[in-house]
Amino acid sequence: MTTEGPPIRRLADWDAATLRDLADGHGTPLYVLDQRRVRENVANLRAAFHEESISYAVKANTVRATLETIAETGIGAECASAGELQRAVDAGFDRLRYTAVNPPAGDLDHVVDLAADPPRDLDLVITVGAADAFEALAERGYDGPLAIRVNPGVGAGHHAKVTTGDAPKFGVPYDRVSELASEIVSRGFDLVGLHAHAGSGIHEASDLAAHRELVSRMGELARELDHDLDFLNVGGGLGIPYRPTDEPLDLDSVAAATREAVGELDARLGIEPGRYVVADAGVLLTTVNTVKPTPETTVVGVDAGMTTLLRPAMYDAYHEIRTLAPDADERESVTATVAGPICETADVLGRGRELPGPERGDVLTIGNAGAYGYEMASNYNSRPRPAVVSLDGGESRLAVERETLSELTRLEIEQ
Ligand SMILES: Cc1ncc(COP(=O)(O)O)c(C=O)c1O
Ligand SMILES: N[C@@H](CCCC[NH3+])C(=O)O
């Protein structure tokens, strides 16, 4: 059983000497994932959502070491692709939800095969977000349990690009759900659940209000359906404080508000957080390559960029940045723009940051990098992806090797 921890692990709480040693030993850019913190986050969620069923949204971080840690806690896995599903199975998850968005044929083939011939006893439910996805499964002879992803018409999130509950791309329109449910049931399938997801990064009061509205609409829909359900999953999206001045969510009150909003329900409530489980369990270490004073700012060029951590470029997301230099206290502070090595103006990890006089060779640490960090890394500009180290108590081990230049072309065929 895992033990609960503080509601957030701040960047300042990481042990600087340990991180410096890891940067020395493995080079940078380097992701570090603390498995103890992952366990604490799961325990914190369980303490608050003790009546609900919890699945980890695998997309936030699929590094095997982390998936194994989470699988061991006994919670389920929510998977958005055949690749995620396979990783979750390989890491030991037994309760799996495949919540496909517009699933490609090859994915469905894989998932249907897995359902027909599982490597062990698996509790696998496929969630369809369109009538066509249901037809595609039926054509493949799938005869297992199904859930419907609903577009509840209300969304929330830290950025418009991750607000899903009101985006037409996601889910069956609310007022067409009963029709699809009847079709599924009349054709002899086992409809076990309904699902909706407001979006990612629910943190502000307005987002929490939208979440409650979503839950309430979903509760109503579940009651209106002429069919008994096993579960009503109201998605993930629980946000975390990215800025040092942000406060963590009060999970107990979010859980209580969720229960209240759903109303009378025979089915079990479910949630599927990703970010909340892994974000503050990870940091990104990066080395300063250049320090360039300019009339506007001091540009601190580092070896991590948008190909290592995409969130600042993609969502203008804020990630705290600190120096690990041991003599930081003796240095005069400068206002810096921390920029990556990619040929894009958007390749900036932080603007207007107060840093103790940065020097070439300094190692910086970037906070809350455990969620959607390594996972969204790319090879743009032919940059190899970084390594990942897994930390557990005093032990550290390499979890993902650093990509090499020769690996960048491994799929290319000489013409
Ligand atoms: C269907 C679904 N469930 C769960 C999540 C997890 O979201 P988060 O990492 O914000 O908890 C997402 C991502 O937004 C999602 O699309
Ligand atoms: N990638 C997003 C979260 C989106 C989750 C997927 N629906 C982020 O970094 O905030």
UniProtKB/TrEMBL annotation:
Query: Where is substrate bound in this sequence?
Result: R275, R311, Y315, E344, Y372
> Which reaction is this enzyme known to catalyze?
meso-2,6-diaminopimelate + H(+) = L-lysine + CO2
- EC number(s) stated in the UniProt entry for this protein: 4.1.1.20
User: What start-end ranges are recorded for coiled-coil regions in this protein?
Assistant: none
* One GO MF term: pyridoxal phosphate binding
Q: Does the keyword Manganese apply?
A: no
Instruction: PTM N6-(pyridoxal phosphate)lysine: list the residues.
Output: K59
Q: Which InterPro entries match?
A: Ala_racemase/Decarboxylase_C, DAP_deCOOHase_LysA, De-COase2_CS, De-COase2_N, Orn/DAP/Arg_de-COase, PLP-binding_barrel
Cofactor(s) required, per the database record: pyridoxal 5'-phosphate
- Active site feature: C343 (proton donor)
This protein's UniProt keywords: Amino-acid biosynthesis, Decarboxylase, Lyase, Lysine biosynthesis, Pyridoxal phosphate
Pathway, per record: Amino-acid biosynthesis; L-lysine biosynthesis via DAP pathway; L-lysine from DL-2,6-diaminopimelate: step 1/1
Task: Quote the subunit structure annotation.
Answer: Homodimer.
Q: What is the protein's known function?
A: Specifically catalyzes the decarboxylation of meso-diaminopimelate (meso-DAP) to L-lysine.
- Could you identify this protein by its name? Diaminopimelate decarboxylase
The coding gene here is lysA
